[in-house]
Amino acid sequence: MPDKKIKAVLFDLGETLLNFGRVNKSRVFQQGARLSYDFLKSCGQPVGNFNYYCWRNLIALRIRHWLSNITRKDFNALLLLRGIGTKKGVRLDRQQWRHFAWLWYEPLSKVGKAEDDTKETLTKLKESGIKLGIVSNTFVHSSSLEKHLKQLGILDFFAVRLYSYEFNFRKPDARIFKAAAERIGEMLENILFVGDQINRDVKAAAKTGMHAVLKAAYTNAGKKIPEGAWKINQLSELPALIEKINAETSQSI
Prior knowledge:
Elements: E1 8-11, H1 25-42, H2 50-71, H3 77-87, H4 94-109, H5 118-127, E2 131-136, H6 142-151, E3 160-163, H7 174-184, E4 191-195, H8 198-208, E5 211-215, E6 230-232, H9 238-252
Helix pairs in contact: 1-2, 1-4, 2-3, 4-6
């Protein structure tokens, strides 16, 4: 019987590593639009009327998001927003474009929080020899997400970070889980995936042969835990759960 001990943990981002809750999307968008608009204006770029700027970007983002749900392939929001700006005559260097993308995301970053003991939990896992990584369905550019994780002091725990917009597929497609396993250097059966979405995260990961854990969140409230998966309320429960799974695995070998 193959060794199925957990040697690596892969995390989803939203409502797993970072808790956003029910976000007022309209307010967050307006705040991001204002910050990014003011930045362009301060750089002497041709921004035009603010309301037009807002609607132009909102419509483009909504259309691309709609298409991504049809094609099941995420888009790179930074490239999209840069393309819109460039057509209007905006000229920025690479770092300025990344800062521009961050300003769109910044209001959301102020909402998204990690649990108070997340650093302690990740330290315990790492010190026990567990490899850590992230697999997230997202159109937000990695520079923004990783700046957020760095602000929270947890970025360096994750040597492997996969964002769906970088691929031609996304969760629940098995290929993204297999790509993550290859990058982290462990067999699928030696990886535990933690996420809040039952179909995209838990069932999909389990189907590839990974261990799967459902993180309690508003996104799965009242839903049944898939057979063979575990459930946690806090990430701090992970070290003890992994010890339990590994002990059970040793007994069955």
